[in-house]
Automatic annotation (TrEMBL):
<feature type="transmembrane region" description="Helical">
    <location>
        <begin position="137"/>
        <end position="159"/>
    </location>
</feature>
<keyword id="KW-1133">Transmembrane helix</keyword>
<protein>
    <recommendedName>
        <fullName>Immunoglobulin domain-containing protein</fullName>
    </recommendedName>
</protein>
<dbReference type="InterPro" id="IPR013783">
    <property type="entry name" value="Ig-like_fold"/>
</dbReference>
<keyword id="KW-0732">Signal</keyword>
<dbReference type="InterPro" id="IPR036179">
    <property type="entry name" value="Ig-like_dom_sf"/>
</dbReference>
<dbReference type="InterPro" id="IPR003599">
    <property type="entry name" value="Ig_sub"/>
</dbReference>
<feature type="signal peptide">
    <location>
        <begin position="1"/>
        <end position="23"/>
    </location>
</feature>
<keyword id="KW-0472">Membrane</keyword>
<feature type="domain" description="Immunoglobulin">
    <location>
        <begin position="32"/>
        <end position="125"/>
    </location>
</feature>
<keyword id="KW-0812">Transmembrane</keyword>
Amino acid sequence: MKFLWQHYLVIVWIIAERPLILSCVSVRFPSREPVYVALGRTLVLKAQFEVQPAEEIRLVTWDHKRGSQEVRLVTNNSPHNNRVTVEMDRQQLRLTGVQNSDYGHYTVMVTDDKGNQISASVEVLNVLAPDPDHKNWGLIAAVIIETVVIVCFIGYHCMEYLRRRKK
């Protein structure tokens, strides 16, 4: 019994003397929802890093995974693709001219000065974009009809006012 009690005291002393702090850096995306982007458009992914004053970010990587294929897009400020740029102190990834192969999961991994790593991921999905040459005739027609109704309403009340005034 005395032997077990001594072990518990040693474990408590170790924990009290050397608290276990895994990382003082956190990373996340503002939303857990997928990001939708159309073919040919620009994808912008914004991560949020939180760093304690005593900590420093040593390395930031951005990876893309589609199926079983994983590709490193950025290491710190060095993109591995001419369509990729990083901004806002490596917290924002910008990918121009989105292609079918760009859909999938994106992961940003942050490594602090102690070697601790933390990551966050977001899924990027395709959304059909309206044809830029297509005119939205439905909306235009609705605005025209609304304008005609308003003009008729005003005209009717003006005529009623004039008729009552003549009497």
